[in-house]
Each structure stands twice: as structure tokens, then as C-alpha cells.
Amino acid sequence: MVLMFENNKGKEIYLGDFDTKKEAYKKMMDFLGNYDFKVYYTREAYYKDKGYLWIDFGSHSSFFHLYGTEEECVGSAS
In degrees to the nearest 10, what's the CA dihedral of 46, 48, 49, 55? Predict the structure, then answer.
């Protein structure tokens, strides 16, 4: 699976390849921690037509995309 960060200008930034959703979530939280962003919730939606899990972490203008199959992406993050 490939984790991308979509910034507030719509540009995707590559964050890495991961074997599990748990590993991708750890990278996501580390990335946000580098900017002192506090995550109070996450929302997810899998977009079959785009092939990624959209992850909202509360910024309202930036998001994460976890590219992979629905089976890989929709499982638990813990």
C-alpha cells in the first residue's frame, strides 16, 4: 500500500510504501506530529473508482490517501 498526503493545494506528497494499514497509520501520525498537529478524530471512506482509502484527520483542507485494494485498506487501523 502507498500512503500519500494531499496538501491544501490538492498536491499529493509520497510518504512511503507499507505492508499494513497499521504501519501506514503510524507514519501518518509521525508525519503530523512533526508539525505539532493534534489529531482528535479520523474519518475514512474507501473510493473504489480511485483505488484509495481517504483519511480525514480534522484539518478540513488536507487529507491522506492510502492506495491499495479495498480488502487491504478497510481493515482496522489498530
Answer: 20
